[in-house]
Design a protein that fits this description.
The protein is of the alpha+beta class. It has 2 domains: 255 residues, Jelly Rolls (Sandwich), CATH 2.60.120; 69 residues, no CATH class. Helices cover 25% and strands 23% of the residues. The chain has 9 helices and 15 strands. A 10-stranded mixed β-sheet has the order 1-2-3-13-10-15-8-7-4-6. The protein has a 5-stranded mixed β-sheet with strand order 5-9-14-11-12, with no helix packed on it. β2, α1 and β3 form a beta-alpha-beta unit. The termini are far apart.
């Protein structure tokens, strides 16, 4: 079913009311052309920018949103300040209607302020929107969010959930990299991030290959897709993606879900603990722990604990909600000693 277009899988004619599991469990990005072409929100935005803004206004619930605001000089690139001690933008909490009015007032500016509202739950801020603008997710219960702003550049980052992102207004360019390119993307701090996820420090518009020489290798593996209103893209878990909004008014609706059970914690917690407890061990000890992780985690199979009677395997047995809760309590007790 999947057809390759250049280096990005691309499909047309997919039923938006019954998205196939082949797409929603793909391990590579998939562009879905025209998937949301029938959405009234898409049709309004195609009519005009004003019509697209007015369509959103009719669902407003009076809620406030978290907005990133930057000076025109940042060129829409939400990023760090010079020494990475803070950021080149500030946060505001305007009403959604006020944010839409602000965006409308700058539609024809040559150098507008950079305006960006990210990851706002649709059902909370635009109740009723999904009644006419939605996908059939095959029994999944995704988190559905809206993103809007003007011409912005969001640095390459990855997300733990799988992601189905649909362009409602404007055009967006996605540049994607497989997870194994992490070393070539020059990722910034893990514990001070612009929006919750660690980001690449490379400016994709002007990559500095003297400072970031391995980015040239990452670029060889990049997949680029430009989407217009009604187009969607599936981004698998942990794929790095850089997102550019190319027009003066842009709206995106995305669906996030995990293929793992809800009781499983984010693996980022394990990474942070490993930085604290494993990374700075003497080399021989670090190698020993690497062997343990390989054995118990990354290469674990039915033989790993086969020599232990099933009732005695405990955490080495299949994980379930009860066992996860018990293990979490034990870990918290140890960490908080």
């Amino acid at each position: 079913m999947l057809q390759t277009a250049d280096r990005v899988c691309e499909l047309t004619g997919v039923d938006a009311d019954a998205l196939p599991d082949e797409v929603l469990t793909s391990t590579r990005p998939v562009v879905l052309r025209g998937l949301a072409a029938g959405w009234p929100a898409v049709q309004a935005s195609r009519a005009s920018r004003g019509a697209g803004i007015d369509y959103l206004r009719r669902f407003d619930a009076g809620s406030t949103v978290a907005a990133m605001v930057g000076a025109p000089e940042i060129g829409g690139r939400f990023f760090y300040n010079e020494d990475l001690s803070g950021f080149n933008f500030h946060m505001e909490r305007p009403a959604l209607l006020a944010m839409l009015d602000t965006l409308a007032s700058h539609l024809d500016d040559d150098a507008p302020p950079a305006l960006y509202v990210g990851s706002t739950t649709v059902d909370a801020c635009l109740p009723g929107f999904r009644a006419a603008n939605d996908f059939g997710m095959g029994g999944r219960n995704p988190l559905v969010s809206i993103w809007l702003g003007n011409r912005t550049r969001i640095a390459a980052h990855h997300d733990l959930p799988d992601n189905l992102a649909c362009v409602v207004a404007g055009r967006r360019r996605f540049t994607l990299f497989p997870p194994e390119q992490v070393a070539n993307l020059y990722i910034g701090p893990l514990d001070l991030t612009p929006a919750g996820q660690a980001i690449s420090l490379v400016d994709f518009a002007q990559p500095d290959l003297q400072r970031f020489p391995r980015f040239a290798q990452a670029a060889e593996h990049a997949q680029v897709a430009e989407l217009g209103p009604g187009d969607a893209i599936f981004i698998p878990s942990m794929w790095w993606h850089h997102v550019e909004a190319l027009d003066a008014f842009n709206v995106l609706v995305n669906y996030w879900w995990r293929q793992s059970p809800a009781y499983m914690d984010t693996p980022m917690n394990a990474l942070m603990l490993a930085l604290m407890t494993v990374r700075d061990l003497p080399p021989a000890q670090r190698s020993a722990w690497q062997a343990l992780f390989q054995h118990y985690v990354f290469e674990a199979d039915e033989n790993t604990a086969a020599h232990i009677p099933e009732p005695a395997r405990r955490v080495l047995g299949p994980m379930d909600e009860t066992r996860a809760r018990e293990l979490r309590a034990r870990l918290l007790k140890r960490i908080n000693r």
